[in-house]
Fold these 3 entries.
Entry 1:
Amino acid sequence: MDEQLEQKRKREREYYHKNKARILENRKKPERLLVKRAIDKRYCDKNREKRKENCRKWYHNNKDKPGYREASSARSKKHYRENLEHAKILRRKRYEKNKPAILEQTKAYAKKHRAHLYQKGKEWRARNRDSILKKEAAYREKHRQQFLEWKRKWRERNPRASAEYYRKNKAILAEKERIWRQNNRARCCEKGARRRAKLRNQTPKNANKKLIMAFYYAAQRISACTKIPFHVDHHIPIDKGGLHHQGNLRILTASANCRKRNKVPA
């Protein structure tokens, strides 16, 4: 019986090697793939335990062979890359089907290997520091309002931790703020003017923030080009009832703006 089976397998191998190109070409046809997958699925469902037992036996018989683990890992990675979308679908289905058990298993593993996972995460972050910082910056820029709201709520919930963090990093935070102000002078000027106007309820609803910011950016560019400091002036000063509105703004040299002070033009 064993001899007949061996001869049959030998004939199959010889036929396969002789007609390998045609067999592989036929396998790529969509209808053949669908039929093959259906047959494979039926066979797997019918012989699941038998296949698992065969895999275990084969693994125990071959695991000590030199180069086995590397070759097995390479085959698995190659198969995963070639069938990435299908693998994602299968993984999602398995997760949805066994969600409570998987979560419990993951939690238990994380608790048991906490130090190891922390060290691996630390090494990974060190290797990918630049890409991580770039992604975090892009995420913060995209979700700026949500991020600022989250920070505000966190400070309200943790006033002691927030004060302690500020105390420990006071010099670093001050330096960061100085650099930011130096690189964003126009935004600082506009923000200060908007804050003063808001305190006096002098920013109308029809004020266009983009046009207002354009004045401050233009003053910054002119100052950089001419090497002469320029300011954005409120034609009618805020102290005298003027509005923080694009129609009430103009660009003056710093000396002219300082001479004008808060006088109302004649």
Entry 2:
Amino acid sequence: MDIIKFDTKNNTNVSSLATRGIYFLFNENKIVYVGQSNGNILHRIVSHMDTKVFDSFNTISCSYEDLSILEAEYILRIKPAYNKNIPSNNKWVSKNIAKKEYGMSKHIFNKLNKNNYFSEVLNFVDLYVKRSEIEAYYGR
């Protein structure tokens, strides 16, 4: 993945940026935030300048249908410092949703969460499992 340096002092050529897709904010070559935009990605990136420290960014295009799933995949795998939860989607299920929708116990959920996918909000850790794994467990 090429890193595009975002410098407000220079007129960075942004004409090649995707209009819809996932964006990654970097600080010192480390991904610190993953987000999505269904419209103007540059506008979304600029909107983070007051609340997040970053020195460069990169984008990838994707379909509207894949935005939330892809963003969730990257957040769960990379665990960027500024991301505190994942967007609602039909692929990833939190422990609370698994209990509500499937009546799944904490023990079974933790067993299925073998890859340790999680997001952390302050000291509360929310775990996630792929919906397909839960449905396979219950034979649905």
Entry 3:
Amino acid sequence: MSWHVQPTSWLRASVSGLKGNQRETMEDRIVFRQWQSLNNQFWMFLVMDGHGGTNTARFVAAHFLPYWEKAWPVTRKVRACIAQVFRDLHEGTKNFDDGSTVTLLLFHQYKSHTPQTWVAHLGDSSVVGIRKSSSDDVIVQRLTRDHKVHLKRERARLPSDVEIKDGYIYDNGEGLNMTRALGDSALGRLLTREPDIRHLTNRWDVIVVASDGLWDVVNPKKLLDILREDNAEWQTSAARLNALRNRRWAQHDNTSLAIVLIDWR
């Protein structure tokens, strides 16, 4: 599954989802949504990396925008609206046996003002930004931090009796290699459902949102080299990066990614 979108003159994206060749099902979901309310416009990219099934990822894909439409008139603030939508998504998925990461890249424009960029995430589907500095150097930076048990702040959220082994947390005979996700009812006592929400103040020229199927084998610093090697049309860049990942690395995980290009001029 590959597609592209150019909803405005300054925003373009190439999107690709690829089932790992040793996976029975494609549990990832990746969607683009746009919405307008009076003088506020929103463009949203969502990556969900499902595990144990597809119900949670599919639920998020289907319900994120309706929940946003419901929450915005009440909150009227981006951060508060994101937090409320994630609470609503948790309520809708808390009894699901399977689970999913959720990563949101959101652009908000009020009237004709400069668009504002936000990221929010649960789990380990990461966001990486690429931009030129004032000295024309290229900066590649992770914009999210995976929710893993080795992080002090994540471990502090867990109950004292949690079983931890090889980076996994266990409860009720179930294990997961992250500390935040939706769904996963058997791990409800352990998991945090509150996302990290960040307003990006730098103007990133390229933002890549992807499940760990990409980041497990592509270092963010090498991402720029890979993109530079590819001089073809932007519309298919995500599909080619996904195909290149399979050729260069014996990687069999499902992978979903969006390469988002922003023209700030």
